[in-house]
Design a protein that fits this description.
- The protein is α/β, with parallel strands linked by helices.
- It has two domains: 288 residues, Tubulin/FtsZ, GTPase domain (Rossmann fold), CATH 3.40.50.1440; 71 residues, no CATH class.
- Helix content is 43%, strand content 20%.
- The protein is built from eleven helices and twelve strands.
- A ten-stranded mixed sheet has the order 1-11-10-12-9-8-7-6-3-5, sandwiched between helices.
- Helix 2 packs across helix 3, helix 5 packs across helix 8 and helix 8 crosses helix 9.
- The longest helix has 22 residues.
- It is globular and about 70 Å long.
- The relative contact order is 0.14.
């Protein structure tokens, strides 16, 4: 059954803002929002974007950028989000822009009282091609994943880079009309769809059927895109049991009956079509395994030394004027992660490795 939440009859500026790190995909999503999606969903979100910088995929360069930019970034974001209650932080992983932002404490450092929702898209280069730069950068982002995050597998091979940016822009603009605080209890995955209403000779029953099919359809998520080091059926299941849908609907469609389809929040607005985001919870034990397991996988790869991931990390180590790649990795973790959840993850990785080392000798 729909929870009725009525919007306005014109473009509405919300109390939710956008935080755009120095990430190419995030900039593409913002451009799509500004060019068309804001108008399509009759919404306006204040945005603060930071210039995209090519750091060559080097996590040490990301840490350096965070150190020199932290104060300016924090002040700029704080001044942009006056009178806002929440912010959506979006990025692809597999690059260095997201790492730099999070190493700098953003967006939480701008205003700790704001609710933050992260919309994160996995790297196709890490998931499908296992390119070392993208794989290492994505794994280094995992400790920051916590409740209040939407994880999306990259759909570039089913669509295109502009198509993925457009779909994620639609997801952001739809979710932004919902109470962000309501999404702070879980890590989610999900998907976005648009049902064309204008000019279609369809009844409300027709739209209820279509909407029901969308709610039941597959989401944009493949666990192997994220946890590629796990093989076989014994891996922790990723999807939880809870789901919900957020639907932005033209006025008069908020009473479409979807009894039996779970929680559907219908928000009436001055829109021509129905915009739907379906969210599925991810199991907390799977998320915790992702956060820790990725760093343990990379630690083991570096320790092994005979693979392309270790070769790349050795090049980073030498660029820093050092010669011990494993010690450099452990020092990098201890130096660049702060905060309760990320810090606890790093402590767990290092303590588990120390226990393993002691058992080996």
């Amino acid at each position: 059954m729909f929870n009725k939440i009525f919007g306005s009859s014109s473009t509405e500026t919300l109390t939710t803002g956008l935080s755009i790190p120095p990430n190419t995909f995030a900039h593409s999503a913002l451009e799509t929002l500004e060019e068309s999606v804001f108008d399509e969903l009759a919404v306006e979100l204040p945005a603060r974007k930071h210039n995209d910088k090519n750091l060559g995929g080097d996590p040490f360069a990301a840490a350096q950028l965070a150190r020199v930019s932290r104060t300016d970034w924090t002040e700029n974001e704080a001044s942009s989000y006056v009178n806002l209650n929440s912010v959506i932080h979006t990025s692809t992983l597999g690059g260095t822009g997201y790492l730099a932002h999070r190493f700098a404490g953003l967006p939480q450092a701008a205003d700790s009282s704001m609710e933050v929702l992260e919309v994160l898209v996995g790297s196709d280069e890490a998931a499908v091609e296992q390119r070392p730069k993208a794989s290492i950068a994505q794994v280094l982002a995992y400790p920051f994943i916590d409740n209040g995050t939407i994880l999306l597998s990259n759909q570039v091979r089913q669509s295109s880079k502009p198509g993925v940016a457009a779909d994620v822009a639609g997801l952001i603009a739809t979710v932004a009309r919902h109470d962000i605080a309501d999404l702070k209890h879980y890590v989610y995955t999900g998907h976005y769809e648009c049902i064309e209403v204008a000019g279609n000779q369809r009844t409300k029953a027709d739209f209820a059927r279509i909407l029901g099919n969308i709610v039941r359809s597959d989401n944009w998520f493949d666990p192997s895109d994220w946890m590629w080091w796990v093989n076989g059926p014994n891996s922790t299941p990723a999807l939880g049991n809870n789901s919900q849908a957020i639907a932005i609907v033209p006025e008069g469609y908020e009473d479409v009956n979807l009894t039996g389809e779970g929680t559907v929040h219908a928000i009436a607005a001055d829109v021509d079509d129905i915009h739907v985001v379906v969210l599925h919870t991810l199991r907390r034990d799977w998320v915790d395994e992702l956060r820790v397991g990725g760093l343990q996988w990379l630690h083991s790869a570096i320790d092994d030394g005979h693979n392309e991931f270790a070769d790349l990390w050795m090049s980073y180590t030498r660029d820093q004027g050092l010669d011990d790649p494993l010690a450099t990795f452990e020092d990098f973790l201890e130096s660049n992660y702060s905060g309760r959840t990320a810090g606890d993850t790093i402590d767990e990785v290092l303590s588990d490795q120390q226990l393993s080392d002691s058992q080996d000798h």
